[in-house]
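Quick one: structure for this chain?
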Amino acid sequence: MHTYNLTYLFKGEPRDHSFELKQSGLPVHEAALHLIVLHYGDGENSLVMPAAHASPKEILQQAKALEITKVEVHPGK
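Got it. Here's what it folds into:
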């Protein structure tokens, strides 16, 4: 497992979160998708999720629309 520490703004407030994933490497758009799921992934908000075929740019645009911005990925130890 690989640990990724994310720093980002959620509704203008600084946040951080860590994920443990099997994959090596976590592009920013995939990190943003994980954060969208974290903050909006319940059943009532499924309509805010990007489409399954969304491009990296579209995922980042959706994150921005949901006030998830300035996402940075920092590999953990």
